Structure formats: C-alpha cells, structure tokens
C-alpha cells in the first residue's frame, strides 16, 4: 500500500527535510537549499508504505555531492547560521567543538563563548591522521586546549582523533559518556570542513549500525541546517551548519585545487635552511622573503602536493608574475589576485600559520616578508609540533 495524493500533500505541508544537509525540501528555486525536482519529490513520497515511514531522501545538491563529489553552490543566509548557534546559550547542552588540527587558527570560531553561554565544551582536535606520526597526542591536546583558552573558550576536556578512522565514534562516545545523562542536547559546532558530519556518521554507526546519513565532502558548507540524531532515549546529537571563514585559503582558489590545500594522508615535514636574499614560494599562491643575515632553519607543514620552490629574492616578484599558473600551482581565482606584503619577526619555536593552507615552524629567530592575498588570515603562535 502506498500513499495517496492527500497524504503526500500532508507530508509536504509539514515540511520534510533532506537527510544529507538538513534543509527543508522545496521545488520552486534551484540553487536554494533543499531543492529537488517536483516530480521526483512527489514520486518518492507516493512510494512510501506509511505516512510515518522515515524520509531517507537527498536533495539535488546532496545527491551530486555524495555520488559524484560535485558541488552545487547554494544561496545561504549567514544570519540564519548565527541564529542556530545563538540558540545554544538558552539550552542545557553539551557542546562538542571540533577544530581542524591542520588548520587550528583558521578553524577557531571567533566569539564562540557568546553563542554557547555557560554550557560545558568538549574540544575535539580532528584530522590527527594527516599530522606526522611522531606527534605526541597528550602534548598536542594540551597545546590545543591552550589555543582555545586564548580565544576565550575553556574546555572541560580535549580529545584528539581522526574522524576518518573507524574507531573515532567510539572514542568520542567514551569521552562524553559522563555528560550524556545530564545534557539532553549535544550540539556539534565548527567551521566548514573540520569533519563534523564525518564524525557524527561514525557515532551513528556505533549507536545504530547504520552507514553514513549526513553528506560529507571536501567542499565547505556541506551541512546547511541543523540535523538532529537520537543518541539515547533521552539525548540527541545536533549537527549545526559549518561557520564559513572567508579568510581561509579554500575560499580563494577553485575547488579543483583543494587537492593542494586539504591533505587526506600524512603530511611529510619538509625542513629547509635559507639565508638572506632567498625566498620560498607556496605553489602559485605567494612567497616569503628571508631578511636575516645569518642562515636560518625551518620546517614546513603543507599538503605534500604543494610545491615549495626556492629562488633568489631579487627575482621573486618577476618569477611569481610569469610562472604562477604555469609551473607554480595552484593559483587563486580571478578577483582574488590583490596581494599584500607584511614584515614579520618570529622567535625560535614559533609557527607562522596560514589559514586553510598549513604552517612553517621556525627553529631560529627570523625576520621575513610575506607576500600573500589580501583578506587571507595569518597568525603567529607557539609551535604546534
């Protein structure tokens, strides 16, 4: 027995949502969250055996994302994102704050404390698998906790894991077990592309045995509305939209070039020794001039596919102008070419972190001039590794 037209209309009036991104289905405007062809939506609903059957349907965007890894740009309202986050402060909730270990500065949420109120925070450092295997988890957890504290977030604990690994869901469930009974709502927050949906899918597998139900991708902005998933009889996990940081390098380049920015396997540390008058390029994205008189040593942590090319500083500007986009890849999208230059002094044991790209760790005091895109965020910090 299938549904009749009246029952289909009832479901549509109630507002059914995409299982991938959480957006409410609509057939009026392509390019707007939740779009699905009217006939496809109607035929699916009509095929259900009961009006109470679970809706396991993907919108057009999520279908292409899941099956073809194709991104369909959609119009979204950032104010709506902030409204969802702001509601956390009014609830009794546990907050799971996910940060990308490969882009810590770029994945911190400015002013998070004002969104979440006095609710406890479990800080989760994701993507451990792309860092060198020599990294000490306890040391990294303490370092991450300090970074969050410097941003005004005092975490009750920090957890280091890799959401892509099969045990990630169980690791996190064990870490939050003492909080589940006291906090009926568990909100997962983070910027785009930190692995929120991947981690929640791992939890779902542990709890129910089901496979992936939330769309995951290398593209930013996968989850467009909050998605609620039952955890126990009295608690639920709520995946929130990823906050978009336009100052990350991923927003300056074409999505086909994310392969140079977002590592999916262990990053190999690359150590250099340079002297004054030498420069190093980050693909076709920018370059650093070294101004020290003495030789300095530093280690670079970037995707293995990103070419770090050394040249003489006197030739750097011409080299960038003539070779970016040719032998030097990737380059920024048209409209993002405006550059800025900044002189920076760093001490031994400090990082220069480039949002959405990677970082340099300097082993000697150094003075550099960094030539990079206007609007791209950079920061100096205590060494991560």
UniProtKB/TrEMBL annotation:
InterPro entries: GTP-bd (IPR006073), GTP-bd_ribosome_bgen_YqeH (IPR019988), Mito_lipid_metab_GTPase (IPR050896), NOA1/YqeH-like_C (IPR048422), P-loop_NTPase (IPR027417). Residues 186-247 form the G domain. Residues 296-383 form the NOA1/YqeH-like C-terminal domain. Pfam families: MMR_HSR1, YqeH-like_C. It comes from the Bacteria. GO terms for molecular function: GTP binding. This is Ribosome biogenesis GTPase YqeH. The gene is yqeH.
